[in-house]
Each structure stands twice: as C-alpha cells, then as structure tokens.
Design goal:
The protein is α/β, with parallel strands linked by helices and 169 residues long. Helix content is 35%, strand content 18%.
C-alpha cells in the first residue's frame, strides 16, 4: 500500500517534468514506436506490428510491452511487464528499464484505466509524442481517443488521421 502511494507521488513529480520538456520541430517524423498494451484490450501483437506499415517503418522499429500477464497473449509479445522490476521507491531495473530508456518517436498507451504503474511506465518511456485512450490518466497523452480500445479499426483510422493532421507521417 505504501509503495503504491510512493509510486503515485513519483509519477506526479515525473509527469510535470515530462510535460515541460516536450518539443517537436517541423522536420519530425515517426521512425520508432513503443506500445504499452493492457491485455484486457485483447489486441494481438500482429495488429500492432502492422501499424509499422502505416508509418512506413520496419516492424523491428516497433517495441511492444504487455502490461499484465496473460497466458494467451504472452507468446505474442516481446516484453512483459514484471512488477518485480519496479522497486519500492519506483525505480526500474532489468528489461523494463531498457524498454523505457530507448528513444521512441511515438508512444501508444493502449489501455484505458487508471493504473499508476502503467502511467509511471508511460511517463518514463522516452518519447516525443504519445497517444492513448480516455479512462486512463489523460495527462500522460498528447492525443486522447474517446472510444473503446477494442475497436481496432477505429483506432487505426483515428491514429492515421491525427498523425496526418500533425504532418508527422
């Protein structure tokens, strides 16, 4: 319980720092994507990896992190969030730290619930722009979609629309 409160405090502190440091220039284009996925959304990895085609990048430039254990989906994802990689003070280690320390152009927060661990991972993942869903802490996202994440076709269409509006694909 105390560690959850501490993580919430760490998240709030890091959120302020993250929001103040975001900058995009006119030449910005998406070349590397990180996707955080809650298995409750029931999105298979193939759908998410196919987003690479939409951005005209290699699937190798898309990193997926499954945020909870799920026997059906575990085999499909490169990385699975392990709560043991977050210490009492909210510091990351292991694969989670490696994932967050990589530099990404786009972060897709594919979850729609308030979870301070999910939000802390989102804030700590180095990215230039992020998208996510209402229901989650909307402060971690630059673009927020207000529909069910299980509606994959609407997500694909809306993501493409907003990225074209921002002229970054």
């Amino acid at each position: 319980m105390i560690s959850k409160l501490l993580r919430k405090w760490v998240f709030e502190k890091e959120l302020d720092k993250s929001m103040s440091s975001k900058q995009l220039d006119a030449s910005f284009k998406i070349s590397k994507i990180a996707i955080l996925v809650d298995p409750i959304t029931a999105v298979d990895s193939r759908f998410l990896l196919n987003l690479a085609k939409m951005f005209k990048i290699s699937e190798l430039q898309v990193s997926l992190l499954l945020l909870n254990k799920n026997a059906e989906l575990e085999k499909q994802y490169q990385q699975i969030f392990n709560p043991q990689e977050v210490n009492f003070w909210g510091s990351f280690k292991g694969e989670l730290l490696n994932f967050c320390e990589s530099e990404y152009d786009l972060l897709i927060n594919y979850y729609n619930k308030i979870d301070h661990d999910f939000s802390l991972i989102s804030v700590r993942t180095k990215h230039k722009i992020s998208v996510g869903f209402s229901g989650a802490d909307e402060r971690v996202n630059d673009v927020v979609f207000d529909f069910d994440p299980k509606d994959k076709e609407t997500f694909k269409k809306e993501l493409l629309k907003y990225m074209n509006i921002l002229n970054i694909i």
